[in-house]
Amino acid sequence: xxxxxxxxxxxxxxxxxxxxxxxxxxxxxxxxxxxxxxxxxxxxxxxxxxxxxxxxxxxxxxxxxxxxxxxxxxxxxxxxxxxxxxxxxxxxxxxxxxxxxxxxxxxxxxxxxxxxxxxxxxxxxxxxxxxxxxxxxxxxxxxxxxxxxxxxxxxxxxxxxxxxxxxxxxxxxxxxxxxxxxxxxxxxxxxxxxxxxxxxxxxxxxxxxxxxxxxxxxxxxxxxxxxxxxxxxxxxxxxxxxxxxxxxxxxxxxxxxxxxxxxxxxxxxxxxxxxxxxxxxxxxxxxxxxxxxxxxxxxxxxxxxxxxxxxxxxxxxxxxxxxxxxxxxxxxxxxxxxxxxxxxxxxxxxxxxxxxxxxxxxxxxxxxxxxxxxxxxxxxxxxxxxxxxxxxxxxxxxxxxxxxxxxxxxxxxxxxxxxxxxxxxxx
Length: 427
What we know:
Layout: H1 2-10, H2 30-34, H3 48-51, E1 65-81, E2 91-93, E3 102-109, E4 114-129, E5 142-157, E6 162-184, E7 191-200, E8 207-220, E9 223-230, E10 233-245, H4 251-260, E11 267-275, E12 278-286, E13 290-299, E14 306-309, E15 319-322, E16 328-338, E17 343-352, E18 370-381, E19 384-395, E20 398-399, E21 410-426
Antiparallel strand pairs: 1-2, 1-3, 1-21, 3-4, 4-5, 5-6, 6-7, 6-8, 7-10, 8-9, 9-12, 10-11, 12-13, 13-16, 14-15, 16-17, 17-18, 18-19, 19-21, 20-21
């Protein structure tokens, strides 16, 4: 029985690094979102604070800018069972969910060649939500994760054609996981649900610091080059687990369970997690009415090779879990057409690799390489700008092919619809 408790505790922090490409939120700023994020060499609005902070230096003629908005994300995922468990013929769908990660940017010039910016961004987030009785409920029924970044920036206009941006990132992360605890009934030899565990962090103290820098160069004839680096961020987590007993219908078994699992007691655990660093490089061409932008990025997921867990009250459960993630590339292409002084249209497409090994796909995250198409429009009236965007995201069908490390094999089919809106005010 204590082994089942250990299994539950092990999942305390697993969701925090189970987000691969599917949990990375590169949708800061609706106009850049509508260009599929191909913005590192454009960086001409306040969302440059995420894509390339150097771009702020070339915006000093706009005065003070405030951008705020959110991206609506509606994911869908279906799981089809394969041998050995849960076997062919089994299928289940995630429950409907809608997420609204917000973004906020403030930009103001500090002088002729220096610009200050501050942003609130969510670079990682989302969650999964399955039926209470689905076959993978002992791995996860519901998980929610958010990573919030508070980001001050300084951008310097080194020359008329070259700018540098630097800043720091203060990250706060929260996790919540609900799952069932199984037990083989010694009387019937059947697996029964004996408890539910709710595993969570409160956000306080679950934080870390990182830094970022960007370079933007205007090469002439409308061509620009952008380069951004964001460092890895190490977060020290403290999490908690509460257990709630289920009646099995067998009073004798229920009594054994009640004596073994610490119902009414909060179990604590700690770990240290390194969020990946990433590079983005790109080229853009800006004409009288058209912007064409292309970029490549790499996320350093290979830093996530294992997960070391420490349990204060149960040191016998301390262990290191292999994860074996690998670095992942992404490719983005974006377009903007300025139809008039008050209207602009955007299009884009991207391809994003997954860092998650095939054997590690679970109900916590069944990730895969993704492709998407985006579109949007911008309406400008005086000192006000409204940006609207839409993205259709398609993930490659992917199967564990009998290799699942959790013993839960099958194929995941996934997609998502995203819609965004941002407002920018200039003073």
